[in-house]
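We were asked to recover a plausible sequence for a given structure. The inputs and outputs are reproduced exactly as logged, with field labels preserved.

PROBLEM: sequence recovery
POSITIONS: 277
GIVEN STRUCTURE:
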């Protein structure tokens, strides 16, 4: 079953440093698809509101007071004790497991998990070298991006096929069987299997893609950049780059959107708009 919602376009005003784009969710009763599958049709979605952010400068007031006639004795300030979480010395080999409600981080060539109560630290993996960027777990929690150029699972660490300096690498949804990112060289949107870097597909639906992200249901990709018709903005397409349509436009094509993410409900898209000023 497909639901068609009227499309309402809104311009992203230059005054907005960040914005929220509300997109109609995929119709109830339509199950999500495997992000590695090819789809030829997608549910119609529409931008229903676009609220530019505003900033407010706060002014401070100062009040002059007469100097006291007496001087209080100097008292050393009380300093609160500092608590640090130390990394324990591993008593055995590291064991790769999907983290739960915890934080993971890389330190001294190891991937660690810090429990939510901050009382226990576990080594998940020994790494072969430095990590080029943030640690990002797949939606299923069975793989982890170590920067942009390496991905690890319980069996191995392998190359993603993306350059280490590519900051736009993101997981596909809902299972994380693939990765997407705009190419550093020409802004083409590239899909790659997370298990095999040579399994690569160009899914571009823009003349130049600045940033892209999967919809949580796996049926659609949202991307910001320049369309083939010269219109700059946020676009929505299938997970293979088909049936692309613009859902919001930039009033100044010389500016760009540097970050885009869809919340877990699939209804709201958040973005950061760089105004070059």
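RECOVERED SEQUENCE:
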């Amino acid at each position: 079953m497909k639901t068609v919602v009227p499309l309402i376009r809104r311009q992203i005003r230059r005054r907005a440093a960040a914005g929220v784009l509300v997109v109609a969710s995929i119709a109830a009763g339509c199950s999500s698809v495997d992000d590695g599958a090819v789809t030829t049709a997608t549910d119609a979605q529409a931008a229903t509101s676009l609220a530019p952010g505003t900033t407010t400068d706060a002014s401070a007031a100062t009040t002059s007071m007469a100097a006291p006639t007496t001087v209080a004795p100097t008292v050393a300030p009380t300093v609160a004790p500092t608590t640090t979480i130390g990394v324990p010395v591993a008593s055995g080999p590291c064991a790769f497991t999907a983290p739960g409600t915890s934080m993971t981080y890389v330190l001294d060539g190891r991937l660690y998990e810090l429990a939510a109560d901050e009382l226990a630290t576990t080594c998940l993996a020994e790494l072969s070298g430095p990590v080029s960027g943030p640690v990002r777990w797949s939606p299923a929690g069975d793989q982890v991006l170590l920067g942009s150029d390496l991905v690890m699972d319980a069996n191995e660490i392998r190359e993603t096929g993306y350059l280490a300096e590519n900051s736009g690498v993101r997981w596909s949804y809902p299972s994380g069987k693939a990765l997407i990112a705009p190419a550093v060289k020409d802004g083409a949107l590239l899909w790659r299997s997370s298990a095999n870097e040579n399994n690569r597909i160009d899914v571009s639906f823009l003349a130049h893609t600045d940033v892209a992200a999967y919809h949580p249901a796996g049926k659609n990709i949202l991307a910001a950049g320049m369309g083939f018709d010269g219109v700059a903005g946020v676009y929505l397409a299938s997970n293979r780059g088909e049936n692309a349509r613009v859902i919001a436009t930039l009033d100044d094509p010389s500016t760009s959107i540097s970050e885009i993410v869809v919340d877990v409900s699939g209804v709201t898209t958040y973005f950061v708009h760089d105004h070059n000023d």
